[in-house]
Amino acid sequence: MRPELKEYALDELFAKTFDIAGKAVRSTDKERAILLRSIPYVGGLLEPMLALGKPAATFLEIMGDYYTNIVNARARGKKVVMTTFCFDPTIFYAFDNLVPVTLEVGTVITSILWKRGSFDYMDFCTEVGFSETGCSSQRGTMGAYLAGAGVDIDMVAINMGGVCDTNGNAYSFAAQYLGKPFYGLDYPSELTPGDVTDYHHKDYRALIRFIEEQGGGRFDIDRLRELLEEKKIQDELTHELEDMQRLVPNPVPGLFNLMLYAGRYTWSGGKKYTRMLKEMVDVVRANADKGLSGLGKPEKCRAFLFYIDNFSFNVGMFQWLRKNQVSHMGNMLSRFFPDNAPYRRDVQGTCYRIDTTSLDTMIDTLADINARMPMTRTIRGPYDAPNMWLEDSLSLAEMYKADCCIYNGTPGCRNTWSNVKLIMRDLEKHGFPTHLVYADAFDGRVESWETTAMRLDEFFSVRGLL
Amino acid sequence: MSALFQEAAQSIDLAAIRTAKQNGMPVVGLTCSFAPVEIFYAAGIVPVRLRGIHTESLAIGDAYYGPFVCTFPKALLQQAGSGFYDFLDGAVITSGCDGMRRLDECWRKMGSDIEGTLPRWFTLFDVPHKPDGVALSWYESRIRKLMAAIEERFHVTITIEALEKAIRDQNMIREKIWELGVLRSQDPVFITGTEAFEALIARTVLPSDVYLDALTSLVDEVKNRTEPVSLGKKRLFVTGSICDDVDLFRQIEEKGAVVVGESVCYGMRNSCDTVREDQDPVTALAEHYLSGSICPRMFGYYPMRRDAILDMVKTAKADGVIMQNIRFCDLHGSENGLLEKDLEKEGIPALRIEKEYGTLTEKGRLRMRFDAFLEQLKSGDT
Asked: How far apart (Å, rounded) are the C-alpha atoms in residues A284 and A237?
């Protein structure tokens, strides 16, 4: 890794970047123009983000808070838990001394904001022995923490056993390399049978024991109840957004998807996240009332991304969709499967319900939520089994009236690349033109954005979608 | 050299399997060492580990799998799609790793495209990704579920007595394999790594009674050999990704080394302990298969695996370790990175290679790497 890169503390860079970006919200047009000239790469995100108004300002604020918390953790006597994006962080916030840090969120930020993305960090992982074919979403910022350019980690806790090997493997490697204690939740291939639920619940309790032992902090039951009650509100607001997303034209701006899931991965149960969701609902409702599309121009086509988004060149994918008047109909990252979600209709009996009656019901709730987080729910069992990838994708694509489906992921995803050709065939059979993106969502070196965009152009043109 | 073991290691179509079938024994294919063979023997079924040897193309494998996937499951699918596994009465797909567990869907899809390629009984066997605590009882419940499925499909009853006998039989094999291991760790050594590895692979594909007799003969015969195979040669240990490639061992040994031990699936790795015979047999099997494995799919248990490998390397008095991984096998790829450093700390030279499954493509490159490594070992410049 370039030695100078080790001189910069990654989390602090993020905290400062979001702090400054947050201030840009209050700048004059002239100040903003000067700022954007000085930060051409950061501007790639900031400009379209600022155009979204209030919710984007709150988003920048909560991301700033997230990294400021991480930076200040040690000084405030708190411990840092390294965890994965699809691990619901509520449990950490229910302790009085824990702060979560999520590798994938950091990788997305560097991929979007930095000219060289997180290439140096990715390569550093390889330098110290990690497999170069491992998933770039972890390698992106894992390299920084392995190199000592991130904050000190106290423990690692994830939920990827039985779901994603490359993810579990990365965190396991990091724990070993850094000499930190590790706990991994494990998931059978099925979701709903009673014995599986029982396994989820028992395993989650063992996780809490691990956190208590390693963290030495106080688990606050009242705080947990407060967080879960707040999550109920957040789920309701998310449902409103998702309900309005069904309208034609779709009134939800594409970048709202990213804000929605990034907010949930970092601040689930947090008040500011609720505020952001309320502001998003206001924007979307105003669009819906006027019959406007969230694209800011007429909607020509609706695309459902049945895996993840592409972050490898600013927010190029979101911009491409906007430019071509294609509505982003959400993806696997943005669905969490609460029992009152608008899309529950086709997946009855497979969603979670928040129950704050007692400590036991709250812990069971957390276990159930974790078992239904993106990836954790959908890509654990056979893709064509009940409640898994195919069924979820079809029900979402149909409900949101998608005109086509797009797979975008990373070559590091052994799991989805092992059956994406199969699901593609099935989606096509069900009438959804389906496109596989061979790029890396986090590593622009694998396929340039220009090539990815050219292939998207080709797909939409050949299939007569645009 | 045992002709039986040579044939077993180099061929999918085996006379011993044909005979078992003629005698009315069903044959079930297994994809992973986490499926306890004892429950199949107790049901009167011959379990056979599936292999992708002699694959000349991956046209079928690539039609179902994406490009960024290890060539091992692709080769298995290729051979199944090409009719090499038409003799199977069933197959059990285990969630060994993501690529292997997706063999379930790829094979089923292929079965609907190419008639006759899907065994009549085809099932997925869940294995947790940690060896203890709540996972252990879960795994035991999965074994019981699998036993029930076998009983239903094959109209048999798996009795406690039959299970206990199967455990005793397999334990005898394990103990004989340890004897072989001891012979390999002697200095000088009288059996090549290639020959020993053939015997170990044979264990995964031959009926256990046939195998035990042949292994016993081999061990007795090696004990009486007088011609050492290790004189003037460096002693090497092989570890890493799944490997049933006898030619890999042959290549290493042709360069003037002797392979004195290995920790790979199909090799010694899964025979490190016996199954307890003094408790409920299913519980004993669960404890043995889950806790005794040193597969990196068990996240967070690297120290246990490192200690086991270091112990094997030292017992075998190896001069160096070759760590191999199949491309896209991130589990072993990364773990080899950690192991390389730990071997270095112990002063044990190591070579880390990445390759495709099988021997078709990379002989020249690998030979060069082995040559260079041995040269370093001989010069002491490691």
From this structure: 11
pLDDT of residue B382: 63
CA dist., res. A8 & res. B125, Å (int): 47
pLDDT value at A347 more than 90: no
Question: Which one of A164, A165, A184 has the shortest CB-CB distance to B300?
Answer: A184
Q: Is the pLDDT of residue B241 over 70?
A: yes
Kindly provide the b/e burial profile for residues A37-50, where b requires at least 16 CB atoms within 10 angstroms of the residue's own CB: eebeebbbbbbbbb
Assigned token pair, B199: 């015997």
Facing A199 at nearest CB: one of B70, B138, B341: B138
What are the C-alpha distances in Å from A301 to residues A465, B87, B138, B243, B288?
A: 7, 50, 46, 49, 56
DSSP symbol at A442: S
Burial of A325 (0-12, 13-18, 19+ CB in 10 A): middle
Q: Searching chain B, which residue's CA lies closest to the CA of residue A383?
A: B105
- How confident is residue B360, by pLDDT bands cut at 50, 70 and 90? low
Of the pLDDT bands very low, low, confident and very high (cuts 50, 70, 90), residue A312 is confident
What is the per-residue pLDDT across A91-139, written as a single tens digit (0 to 9) for each?
A: 999 999 999 999 999 999 999 999 889 999 999 999 999 999 999 999 9
Residues 141-160 of B with CB under 8 A from A: 141
8 Å CB contact of A129 and B128: no
Mutate to test the interface with A, among B60, B92, B105 (most CBs of A within 10 A): B105
Nearest residue on chain B to A200, alpha-carbon basis: B134
Looking at the predicted structure, is the pLDDT value of residue B291 above 90? Answer: no
A419 and B105: CB-CB below 8 Å? Answer: yes
CATH, range A222-462: 3.40.50.11900
Burial class (CB in 10 A: 0-12, 13-18, 19+), B187: exposed
Looking at this predicted complex, what is its ipTM? 0.96
Q: Do B124 and A131 touch (CB under 8 A)?
A: no
Of B63, B99, B109, the CB nearest to A414: B99
- Residue located via tokens 């059956």: A419
Q: Which of B108, B124, B307, B330 to mutate to test the interface with A (most CBs of A within 10 A)?
A: B330
Domain positions in chain A are 222-462
In chain B, pLDDT over 90 holds for what percent of residues?
93
The Cα of B128 is separated from the nearest Cα of chain A by a number of Å equal to 6
C-alpha distances (whole Å) from B225 to each of A138, B191, B256, B261 are: 53, 9, 20, 19
pLDDT in tens, B132-162: 999 999 999 999 999 999 999 999 999 999 9
Least confident range of A220-224, A378-382, B97-101, B292-296: B292-296
pLDDT above 90 for B361:
no
Minimum CA–CA partner of A163 in chain B: B98
pTM greater than the 0.95 cutoff: yes
DSSP character for B116? T
Beta-carbon separation of B126 and A195 below 8 A: no
In single-letter form, the type of residue at position A325 comes to Q
Write the residue in B66, B73, B330 that is nearest to A169 by C-beta.
B330
Q: What's the CA dihedral at A367, A368, A371, A374 to 10 degrees?
A: -120
Of B108, B331, B340, the CB nearest to A169: B331
pLDDT category at A451 given cuts 50, 70, 90 is: very high
| DSSP-derived 3-state class of residue A100 | strand
Nearest CA to A230 out of A172, A273, A279, A294 is that of A273
Return the residue of A nearest to B134 by Cα. Answer: A203
How far apart (Å, rounded) are the C-alpha atoms in residues A21 and A50?
9
Inter-chain Cβ pairs, chain A and chain B, closer than 8 A: 144
Q: pLDDT tens, A315-338?
A: 899 999 999 999 999 999 999 999
